[in-house]
Amino acid sequence: MGDLGQIVPMKYNPRDDKSIKAVMAKANVVLNLIGRDFETRNYSFEDVNHAMSQHLAVIAKEHGGIIRFIQISCLGASASSPSKMLRTKAASEESVLQIFPEATVMRPATIIGTEDRILNRWAQFAKKWGFLPLFGGGSTKIQPVYVVDVAAAIVASLKDDGRSMGKIYELGGPEIFTVHELAELMYDVIREWPRYVNVPFPIAKAIAFPREFLLNKVPFPMPSPLIFNLDLINALTKDAVVSENALTFSDLGIQPHKLKGYPVEFLTCYRKGGPSFGSTISEKTHRYDI
Ligand SMILES: NC(=O)c1ccc[n+]([C@@H]2O[C@H](COP(=O)([O-])OP(=O)(O)OC[C@H]3O[C@@H](n4cnc5c(N)ncnc54)[C@H](OP(=O)(O)O)[C@@H]3O)[C@@H](O)[C@H]2O)c1
């Protein structure tokens, strides 16, 4: 990620202004990547996704030397979203732009990459239980994006002489998938026979509900939700694709990558027999074409 000395990790506590000021002291750019897609008993969605962003924007503004503030939000952030996380992301965009009008907001779609929280979780679940639950039949449309393209968009916006200041960008990949189609891609790469269980939304919500209900009622931390995350299930009741008139990758001079191929290659570690065992149907077809 950087040569020795180029990246200097600094500790801070989001509830301690002094530590945030110390981190920002010698900076001129702030990228706010703080976010969480589940609540804990210490931090609500409001705390992590909204209040902290607002707080960072206030401190960055007071600093005087911060020339760029990039707020990482989420595709689908809206005050009317069925997901609490997306509602708090929308609130954070509004607050950040109010406090720091020169800020740039990036709304990435579901991010795909080595440590992503969708394909890895699906693959782990499918390997462990032999099937993948498809909420609402997996018909929700999503527009997953390669993590490298999101990073490139952030860098491009920092190098555009301020043209992206005060603007909101929606970062979706070049293809729209249904959740089911994306799961098929995952199964193809891990070389497992696709097996699904259709879980209607009301049942998925009922399975996920106890964690949220007990979160602040029991004297111990609840486990992090993996697949059955109530808020993500709520989010999946609505398609999440780039809106028609939004600013996108093309406005930053970037052509996002298709997912098939290198962006999902990390999934080969889930193959029975190791990453280079056998070949997928698509790879065989490709070989015969040559
Ligand atoms: N992954 C996606 O599909 C996706 C899609 C759209 C938007 N986003 C947004 O992109 C940003 C980065 O996400 P990511 O996927 O890279 O997730 P990530 O690896 O979990 O990063 C989130 C960061 O927020 C920090 N954080 C969370 N709760 C915190 C708290 N209470 N106090 C202090 N720090 C806290 C985490 O710190 P620790 O690691 O120390 O907990 C971590 O550094 C987030 O704002 C997320 O909402 C992600």
Biggest sheet strand line-up: 1-2-3-8
Strand content: 5-15%
Structural category is alpha/beta
Mean pLDDT: 93
Rough shape?
globular
N/C terminus separation: 36 Å
Radius of gyration: 20 Å
Number of helical stretches of at least 4 residues: 9
Order of helices and strands: HEHEHEEHEEEHEEHEHHH
Question: Characteristics of this structure?
Answer:
9 helices; globular; binds NADP nicotinamide-adenine-dinucleotide phosphate; 290 residues; two-stranded parallel ribbon; disordered C terminus; alpha/beta; four-stranded parallel β-sheet; protein-containing complex binding
Please tell me about this protein's structure.
This protein has 290 residues and is α/β, with parallel strands linked by helices. The longest helix has 19 residues. Strand 1, helix 2 and strand 2 form a beta-alpha-beta unit. The chain has a four-stranded parallel beta sheet with strand order 1-2-3-8, with helices on both faces. A two-stranded parallel sheet has the order 4-7. The two termini are 36 Å apart. The chain is globular and about 55 Å long. It contains nine helices and ten strands. Helix 1 packs across helix 2 and helix 2 runs parallel beside helix 3. The C terminus is likely disordered.
